[in-house]
Each structure stands twice: as structure tokens, then as C-alpha cells.
Specification:
Two copies of one chain form a homodimer. With 207 residues, chain A is an alpha+beta fold. The first copy, chain A, has one domain: Glutaredoxin. Helix content of chain A is 53%, strand content 9%. The first copy, chain A, has a four-stranded mixed β-sheet with strand order 2-1-3-4. The longest helix of chain A is centred in the first third of the chain and has 18 residues. The first copy, chain A, is globular, with a radius of gyration of 17 Å. At the A-B interface, helix 4 and strand 4 of A face helix 4 and strand 4 of B.
């Protein structure tokens, strides 16, 4: 029997996507669930609902508490002390194009985690193509070549199509988790429940 | 030594406040924490950031998934099947005025839970003063008399002052939890962590 599956939709500029990216492998292994990593850009989704920046910038009280909350969560999970990207949110276009290019490659997960760690644990920029190339080089990949391939029209189209898929499947934030039967879970706080659902464990008598 | 304390700020129209209200007593007892129940209106807080309704109405994808999420959470907590108030959000002014009037009364907690249950488990309106009076009567209290006292200018002022306190202490949503040392936790998902913090248990090495 094939393993149950869960899609993990993430945005490189998103603090809570970072928390999920660093946790999902061990939790999925324990739950017996195969994860499909789905990079996408949340910016167009926000723009479609009239937001010109991160809600954490648009609503300052919410933003202040988000940073404190992520700091607490990182400590609770045993992650390194949080570093706050400057500016926030980071422009994630280059990194996301590369991740889309690597959607079916074995380096997608290590690349994804390296980008998140650079941004939220090492205090490094991930915005410039050169920063993304350096992360790829650090994984013994060919940074310049992959960046060039990621900029090809066909790959840009794949990224746009992923964004359309996100909206059409009801995503409105990152991270989000989607099961094969279309159940949508939003936010790092729902990672465990999403994995349980994918594995066939419904809360109460829900279907 | 006095018990550690936690303030629970809640809004009667808020789905996640409902989930916390039904859970906090048992969890606080287990954690050895005394809870101060703080009713307030979130509407003015939302209005101050430019929202004219609930974000769950303003952003339809978010709203759709919220209802499903609360349904899942209610099932996971063993609460009754969720009923969706119509309209949503319910006008909570009358109920909140009564709760403010009862801030130091032994009936505050049973009244609060009865209002939430009426709205989210029994599918009843809580908007009209007569609905609030019926809930009070059901608790063997004098509904008409309490509603009249709740409408007095001094009590309306107390409600406004509570709203000012909420904003000045950084609240931007409901439910929220505040510790004596000023640590703010937002959302039903943080109830357990807020109680742990109040009891002196910090995640990792945080202060």
C-alpha cells in the first residue's frame, strides 16, 4: 500500500513556513506520511485581497507579537535563536524560482531548509540572486547554472501555475497543508493535525 | 504563595474565544493558574486597523477554512458539533456589557460559557437584549434587572476603558492571554503555552 501523502505549501519569506520546514521531516516520518514540498509565492495571494505587504507589517501590533511568538516557538522546538530578516519580508522570487525548478530533484528539501536557515537563523539575506547562488554552492550544486535555468520562461510559467493552483485550492496563507482528499490546514500550528488527517486519523467523528 | 495568574481576554462573537472559554478552566486547574476572565469588544480594535467586519468575512478563503478548522478543533476537544451563528459575527454589545457588569461576580464564568454555548453549540442568537436576558434567566439571575444595570453610563464607561486597556497592552485579536509580566499570547492555539508561561515554565532559555 502506498504511504499516505501530504502537500506542504511554503513561502520562503514566511516565518511560520520556516518553523514547519524545520519540523516536518521528523513528524512526517513518525506519522508514516510522505510529504510533497510545494514552494510558492504568497505575495500575489495577499495582493488579490488588497494587501500590499505582509499583514505583519500592515498591522503593527500583530507584527510585534508575531516576532515574539516565533521566538518563543523556535525556543520550544529547540531551533536556533531567531534572526529577524532586514528588510522583512525578504524578496523570495529568486529562491522560489529555484525551488520550483527543483520540484522533483533530491536537492529541493536541503535547499529549502538552507534558505530558511539563512534567513531566520543566520541573519543572511536571501533576496539577491547572488545570495541564492551562494546557498546552492554551499550544497555542492552549480549556483549560476541553476539560477539561469530558473529564470527561463518555462520555469517562470511553472511558478505562476503553482500560484494559480494555490488560489484555486483555497490557500490564503503560508504554510498550508493539503491532503489528497482536499482537506486544507493553515499554519504551522496545524502541522501535526494535518499529518494525522493524512494518515487517516480524523478528530472525533468528522469526515 | 499566591497562585500565578493569567488574564483571558475574549470576545463573544469570536469562534476561537469560544474554544478557549470551554477549555480554560480544566487546563488552568491542571497548571495551578488562576484565570481572570476579561470580556471586551474586538470590533473597535478591528475598526482601528481599517476592517469594517470580521476578517473571516472580509477574506472569504480565510473565512471558509476558519469554519472548517473550528469544526475540526471542536471535534478534537470533544465539544458539541459547531453551529454557525447567522449572521456572523453576532452583535455582542449587550452580552459584553453584562459580562463587564459581572466582572467581579461569581456568575461571570457561567454566564460567559452559556453565551458562547448558545451561539456556537445551540445555534441561538445572542444579539438581542432579550436573548441575553433569557440566558441570564436560565442561570437563575434577574435578566431584565442586570440588562438595565449593564446599560448604565458607568458600566458603558467600564467597557470603553477595557477596550482602551486592550489596545494599550498590545491586543489585536481574540482570544488573547496576558501574564502578570506582560507576555502576550494570541489565539486559542496558545492557551496551553500561556498557562505554562504564567506558571513559570519558559520555552528554552527565554525570559
Amino acid at each position: 500500500m502506498p504511504r499516505p501523502r501530504l502537500e506542504f505549501w511554503y513561502e520562503f519569506a514566511s516565518t511560520y513556513s520556516y518553523l514547519s520546514a524545520m519540523r516536518i521531516e521528523a513528524l512526517a516520518e513518525a506519522a508514516g506520511v510522505a510529504v510533497r514540498w510545494r514552494p510558492f509565492l504568497i505575495g500575489p495571494v495577499f495582493a488579490a485581497q488588497g494587501w500590499t505587504s505582509s499583514p505583519f507589517n500592515l498591522f503593527p501590533a500583530k507584527g510585534r507579537n508575531m516576532w515574539r511568538d516565533v521566538e518563543r516557538q523556535a525556543a520550544a522546538y529547540g531551533l536556533p535563536p531567531l534572526t529577524q530578516p532586514d528588510p522583512f519580508p525578504q524578496n523570495s522570487l529568486s529562491a522560489t524560482r529555484v525551488a520550483i525548478l527543483g520540484a522533483d530533484e533530491p536537492w529541493l528539501v536541503p535547499f529549502t531548509k538552507a534558505v530558511f536557515s539563512a534567513s531566520f537563523a543566520q541573519g543572511r539575506s536571501i533576496a539577491e540572486p547572488s545570495a541564492v547562488a551562494a546557498i546552492l554552492d554551499g550544497l555542492d550544486l552549480d549556483g549560476p547554472q541553476l539560477l539561469k535555468a530558473a529564470s527561463a520562461e518555462a520555469n517562470k510559467t511553472r511558478l505562476r501555475v503553482a500560484g494559480e493552483e494555490a488560489r484555486s485550492r483555497g490557500l490564503y496563507g503560508a504554510p498550508s497543508f493539503l491532503t489528497d482528499d482536499g482537506e486544507l490546514f493553515w499554519g504551522n500550528d496545524r502541522l501535526e493535525q494535518a499529518l494525522s488527517w493524512a494518515a487517516g486519523d480524523r478528530p472525533g467523528s468528522l469526515r
